[in-house]
Amino acid sequence: MDLLIDFLIHTHISNLGQNGVSPEDDEPFFVADLGQVIRQHRRWKRNLPDVHPFYAVKCNSDPNLLRLLAELGTGFDCASIEELRSVLDLGVDPARIIFANPCKTASSLVFAQRAGVTWTTFDNLDELDTIKKHHPNAQLALRIFASDSDAIVDLSKKFGAPIDSTWRLLQRAHELGLEVSGVSFHVGTGASNIAPYIKAIQQAKTVIEQGKALGFLINVLDIGGGFQDSNFENFAPKLQATLRRELPTGMRFMAEPGRYYARSAYTLVCKVISRRLQTGAQPEPDMLYQNDGVYGSFMNVLIEKEVLHPTLVSRSLHRHEGGGKRHKGTCRYSIWGPTCDSTDRVVEEMAMESEVKVGDWLKYTHMGAYTTATATQFNGFRSHRHVTYLNSELIGHGTTRKSRHIRPHLISCQLL
Ligand SMILES: *Cc1c(COP(=O)(O)O)cnc(C)c1O
């Protein structure tokens, strides 16, 4: 798979025009392997067969990714009119969508109601009034507090009803004649502990009991997102066992994975546009300036404190303005984005195997989650990116020995 991705990177670079002619040729670009999304989906089904995934659109709303997930049969977690629209436009049945934002505008509720999206979440009393007024037939899931303090981004400061408030909330929903049929939680994005999930599942049981006492049939449990590649096989079987053991039969389980599906499928390639070799006596690393930064695809460096390790795209296949020889052996660099803001630093310091020159390209893997989704146009740098798609799951079918050269199945190339 890596070979294929490298092949497409080289193809993209060698198709660029003469240096300096077209601004497009100076843009960063992605290669997305949709086959990787398919493999993640298989992995999900194998490890969490009882839990239906509703992909969290905010993580990466690439229409090709959404289309593939729709074909694979996932549901979708949307938080805004625009996200609802992007999923509905694919022809997805509104029953496969949860409007999983606990604090919604009146107009978005009206939009959801007209579109036939009935599932939504709430976690406070005022939201119940808004829902009563604008979407009274909604099916509600009470989002309860859950927190993994070690998560990359802890969401519990903002959302989730404390367990001592759930009775009052359910009572109020009952008074208003609303229907509560689910409980949800989200331990935070990039979770690293299983205990907060288990604790939240226990508390969900309490809410189900409280609901029963008021005449609600709560038969859906939504265990949110937070799943990471690194610990999925460790978490998933334990969660699966806990759900089976702790909750009554007939309960439906769902989750809202974002990062899990999108992260590993996208590789970003950035061009080195300038360089400062240090001349002072201090042993500061040399500085590389590239065409994408924290206001573009790298906001995760600021928000998630992500430490990235790009690699140099091998030079033999592309034109190069620097030319000449380069030093072999370790070189230390800091890497900066294109804006005129000094917080725009992508890598604090790293070692590269050889010298990096202006005109070189750097490859960053695992760039599918919260990258394009959060890109801005700060300082006049474009936020949309060219993406070359391949589906590595289609490769190898029907190829004979003779024709087994690299022949990636390109789906399309377009701007994101
Ligand atoms: C962001 C978010 C998700 C996705 O979280 P990941 O950590 O990317 O899996 C799911 N549900 C809700 C309500 C969210 O806000």
Task: Characterise this structure.
With 416 residues, this protein is of the alpha/beta class. It is elongated and about 80 Å long. It has helices at residues 2-14, 34-47, 63-72, 81-88, 106-115, 125-134, 166-175, 195-214, 232-246, 259-262, 299-303, and strands at residues 29-33, 51-56, 75-78, 97-99, 119-122, 139-143, 179-184, 220-222, 252-255, 266-276, 286-290, 311-312, 328-336, 345-354, 361-364, 386-390, 410-415. 42% of the residues are buried. Pyridoxal-5'-phosphate (PLP) is lined by residues 56, 58-59, 77, 100, 186, 189-190, 224-227, 256-260. Pyridoxal-5'-phosphate is lined by residues 56, 58-59, 77, 100, 186, 189-190, 224-227, 256-260.
**Number of helical elements:** 11
Question: Could you say what the CATH architecture of the largest domain is?
Answer: Alpha-Beta Barrel
Secondary structure class reads alpha/beta
Helix-residue proportion:
25-40%
How many distinct folded domains?
2
User: Remind me, CATH topology of the largest domain?
Assistant: TIM Barrel
Cofactor: pyridoxal 5'-phosphate
Protein name: ornithine decarboxylase
Modified residues (N6-(pyridoxal phosphate)lysine): 58
Domain Orn/DAP/Arg decarboxylase 2 N-terminal: 34-262
